[in-house]
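Entry 14. Ran structure prediction on the chain below.
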Amino acid sequence: MPAVSLLIPIYNVEKYLRQCLDSAKDQTLSDIEIICINDGSTDGSRSIIQEYLDADPRFRVIDKPNSGYGVSMNMGLDAATGDYIGILESDDIFELDGLEKLYNIACKFDAQAVKGDFYLYWSKPEVRRELYHVIDEDMADKLVNPEDDPRILYRKASIWSAIYRRDFLEKNSIRFLETPGASYQDCGFNFKVWVMADRVAFTTSPILNYRQDNEKSSVNSPGKVYCVCDEHDEIDRYLTQHPNKRKRFKGIQERVKYDNYMWSYDRLASDLRSEFLQRASKEFAHDIEVGDVDMDLFEEWAKADLGLLVNNPRKFDEFRDKYAKPGKVNTFKRYYNIGGMKLVGKMLKDKVRRQ
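Output, structure tokens:
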């Protein structure tokens, strides 16, 4: 049984694939298996994978018709035999001692999950790296229970800068949502991990280079508009199955959901935004009505945003574009004056009255 099973989902990424696979092959932790999940690639990716299969017995491949990230990752989870499972996206690059650092910390603390920091990485016009700072100094080098310190739930999902104990994932049925052609499928997996774990450890050491050259700047496909909504529907379903966890984490999910929705909204093509905001507005209005939203977790500006979104999504779209872009001024005052905070106050009063 290897120490770590490293899962690499691959789809038409021949431009970056050798650099990725080299970083897996050359890990200082040699007791690993490297499982490439080929999601029906039509470029030269499969031939590149074969080079590594022929040269290194630690490499394995799962060939499958194109059916999306969630299916690929779940097939990888099912095939893994290691004590821990790591994830490497096929355009990213592991630091050569990345897995060894994570695994040593996992063994030291008998942790269910260990998460490290990472670099944002650009290869052009010249190589550049910036530390992301996903882990705070005071979170590192100790055991943490996310119920007591939930900061990690608010951070970028970045599921690939961590390893997860395989039997922990299996025991808690932590898997990926299998939505064909979907995006954001790290969102649900990430939330489930931190909700169910009570023994996690962090390191401020950067263990991976997260490529920015291959980032998509916008979403133009109508089929992807509601992928982030699907992920939060799945999180809600999962929390409902675990009532004690739902009581502790539902409010946090709503705060994270708002950030996720706004990040998704900002990436949508302009002609797709209006319909998305209508759905988001109805969802948050319902969630506030039933008491799922904890306003204490929203900053003042976020309360104003949320109030305006629920009250008038059309106006929200107009004012966010006009006043909330970088370099704009008096953003909060404008939101406050058009009634966002006023509506939030009314919602809170109604909630108290119902109680």
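Residues 222-354 form one domain. Will compare against last week's run tomorrow.
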